[in-house]
Amino acid sequence: ELNGPWGVAVSNNGNRIIVTENLGQCITILDREGKKVKSLGGKGGSGNVKLSFPRGLAITPDNFILVSDDHRIQKISMDGYFVASVGENGSESLQFKAPRSMAISPITGQVYIADRDNHRIQVLNPDLTFSHSF
């Protein structure tokens, strides 16, 4: 059973369903039939991921997980290892106040993040550097 599912995405090959569990403070990876493969973060999760309030997520073209967590965006490998993190609480570039959903452009690879309490969309380059906002 999922504990507060918030975001959902599908791996690039379609074999894995990735779900953020806000109340469980983890990411759960399921097979196509919904059977749990592993949890990342949370209690008893595999890898070295620490999550506070995971919500939105997207899968990069090279099959990494991007997740909005607290006031940051974390990049995590499918096997559960922390790769990178950007952002902190604030209203400047690469600062977030309650980031929620995100999407990745299939053409440019840029990441579009709904920065809820800053009332804007922040756009990051594929390497998670700031591009622009609107």
What would you say the CATH architecture is? 6 Propeller
Outline the biggest β-sheet.
4 strands, antiparallel
> Uncertain spans, ≥5 residues at pLDDT below 50?
none
Spatial gap, N to C terminus = 38 Å
Helix content: under 10%
* Basic shape: globular
CATH superfamily, please?
A: TolB, C-terminal domain
Give the C-level CATH assignment: Mainly Beta
Notes on the structure:
The chain is mostly beta strands. The protein has one domain: 6 Propeller (Neuraminidase). It has strands at 5-10, 16-21, 26-31, 36-41, 54-59, 65-69, 72-76, 82-86, 99-104, 111-115, 120-124, 130-133. It has a four-stranded antiparallel beta sheet, with no helix packed on it. The radius of gyration is 14 Å and the shape is globular. The protein starts with a strand and ends with a strand. The model has no long low-confidence stretch (mean pLDDT 95). NHL repeats lie at residues 1-33, 42-79, 83-127. Keywords: Repeat. One of its GO terms (molecular function) is ubiquitin protein ligase activity. This is SMP-30/Gluconolactonase/LRE-like region domain-containing protein. InterPro entries: 6-blade_b-propeller_TolB-like (IPR011042), NHL_repeat (IPR001258), TRIM-NHL_E3_ligases (IPR050952).
